[in-house]
Amino acid sequence: MRDELRRAFVFYALVPMLLLLILSAGLLYIYWMENISRRNAAALQQVSGTLQQTIQTGLDEAERLSLQCDFDRLQQDPAYKVAFYRRLYDFLNEEPAYRMFVVLDSEQKIVMSSRSQDPEFLYLSKDVFWGILERLWVEPYHAMYEFIGYDKKFGQPMDIAVGKAIMADEKTRGYVIFVISGPALLQEMVNPRANIVVEDAFGHTPLCTDYNFSLRVNNKLRAEFHQAEGYVHYGTGDYYVGKASVLDGGATVYAISALGELRTYLQQAALVLLGAGTLLLFLILRISRRQARWQTRIIERIVDAFTAAKQGDLSYRLHIPESSELRVIGESYNRMAHSLRALIKSNEEKTRAAVLLELRQLTSQFDPHFLYNTLGSIKFMITLDPQAASEMTMALSRLLRYSIRHASAQVALRDDMQYLYDYLAIMQYRFTDRFDYLIHMEPAAELALVPKLCLQPVIENALKYGYEGRQHLLVEIVITVADGALDIWIRDDGCGMDAAQLEEIQAVLARQELPAAHSGLFNIHRRLQLLYGAAAGLTIASVPGEGTTVRMKLPLRQAEEGTGDAGHYC
Questions:
Q1: Choosing a second label site near 73 at 20 to 30 A (CA), which of 149, 218, 469, 492?
Q2: Residue 509 CA: distances (Å) to CA of 503, 513, 515
Q3: 523: pLDDT strictly greater than 70
Q4: Count of alpha carbons within 13 Å of 396, Cβ hemisphere only?
């Protein structure tokens, strides 16, 4: 048995382990090289998509506003001018990368602007008629964009002007122009997987996360990376370069991933693994014979102890003589068994406490963008409609007070609906006649217990994504009681989702960690599962161009009459 133990230990354990380590190191290197290209492609896709979508959104909005603008009324009718201001500010609120707008007449004089100082592109064209204004004058029927600020110091990101000429009777009456903040756009494009460089049609690099890749003389991409794709050697380092053309060829996005340092780490790790394996092999060959003689006497005891533990019997005590090197195993096993018994006893209470803590954390989360946009609308309406601004402030105050109070994880549905009406009222003030809602709730559902603020994240998600290509959005809420269950349907007639988008959201809901996007839907889905089990949650269906439906089906649990948060509604 001693010889068999020695041979088995050397041959069946150590040798295969060393071979596996060597094979794993090779496979790790191959996978790493492939993973670099995939990670680079993912970073390139994300960044180029952000740049394309941000600029295209401004082009579409400038096109839409220029076609709808009556320039004579804009200069003469104050009410029309206020309404036009609202359209422009709504767009700035919805697009955080856009920092200002300006409307000019045909003489380049400012008619309205979101900033008190003149925009940079206007300052640059005062003496020489050039830049985006010259291009819009030459081609007044096309929305255009242009990087501005070539006179800035090296290493500073450039802003982007997006605009369209306002035409009437085939004459240029004015211009509507938005300005994208270069630093803000670059912040959205930052990716930990690669350095990002944006090259315009003239070869300049207006946006760059690391200006070491650009020439200081003319702010152009270095020749080693220009038109390169794949592995590139520059200086003392190696890089992987991916590129994509965006904006109909008007710009090129480069994703540059450094390889040198990572490759060095991989080589060092392989050497460490090889050295450790060799040393381990040498030591085992030397001591395996001697250890086999001493350890065979008590191996059966160890096997019996672990067999009992495997079968769930933690009362077994392992006794090993003090002279044996395996005595530490016996002591460790006995301590482990004692600790496991204590852990099993307290596990239920810890699990319950963790669930309650997670529920409280999920309930307390509130979208900061909603607060920012609502406060911006209140600021705007203080001048236009003080009464409406006051009502919005009161509604927001009640909603915030309700959201931060942790009286209980569940409330009566009628109480939660009162706060939902405040949220809907705020949304109607913000979107005016572009948003409507319908609510049908059976009387039997009023006292049903539901998670606090369980409907608001779903409606917020519909408002955030449903307006694409739409001028109006209708949200319908239907709440019924049947077969001992509370059935909640939330439908909208927005733009809907294609199969890929729907699959992405369903994958987000299936994960057990808070995502960067769709956090509102994830929160309510997770709370439903914590309260009612893994079978509960959100069911989502969507048809592109027709809208999205979200369903929640909960077990019917009635609150006691006269309880809940309604008494605190003030």
A1: 469
A2: 10, 9, 9
A3: yes
A4: 23
- Each residue's pLDDT tens digit, 417-466: 888 888 888 888 888 889 999 999 999 999 998 888 788 888 888 888 88
Residue 44 has, within 13 A of its CA and on its CB side, a CA count of 21
- Rounded-to-integer distance, Cα 94 and Cα 110, Å: 23
- Lowest-pLDDT choice from 110-114, 147-151, 230-234: 147-151
| Rounded-to-integer distance, Cα 429 and Cα 434, Å | 10
Q: What are phi and psi of 156, to 5 degrees?
A: -105, 130
**What residues does each domain of the chain span?**
1-258, 263-361, 367-568
Main-chain phi, psi angles of 165, to 5 degrees: -75, 145
pLDDT by residue (tens digit) across 99-109?
A: 889 999 888 88
Record: fold of 1-258: Beta-Lactamase (3.30.450)
Tell me the pairing of strands 195-200 and 251-258: antiparallel
DSSP strands (E only) in 59-138: 98-105, 110-113
Taking domain 367-568, whether its CATH number is 3.30.565.10 is answered by yes
Give residues with Cβ within 8 angstroms of 359, minimum separation 6.
409, 527, 530, 531
Predicted local distance difference test score (pLDDT) of residue 335: 80
Count CA atoms within 13 Å of residue 208 on its CB side. 22
Owner of token pair 């006292």: 447
pLDDT in tens, 525-548: 887 887 887 778 889 999 998 999
**pTM of full prediction above 0.70:** no
Q: How is residue 378 written in tokens?
A: 């209140």
319-345 as b/e: b if 16+ CB within 10 A: ebeeeeebeebbeebbeebeeeeeeee
Work out the burial of residue 27: count CB atoms within 10 Å of its CB; fewer than 13 is exposed, 13-18 middle, 19 or more buried. exposed
The beta-strand segments (E) located in 391-472 are 410-412, 435-441, 449-451
The alpha-helical segments, DSSP class H, found in 455-561 are 456-465, 499-510, 519-532
If pLDDT is split at 50, 70 and 90, which confidence band does 487 have?
very high
Give the end-to-end CA distance of the chain in Å, rounded to a whole number: 82
- Report whether 132 contacts 121 (CB < 8 A): yes
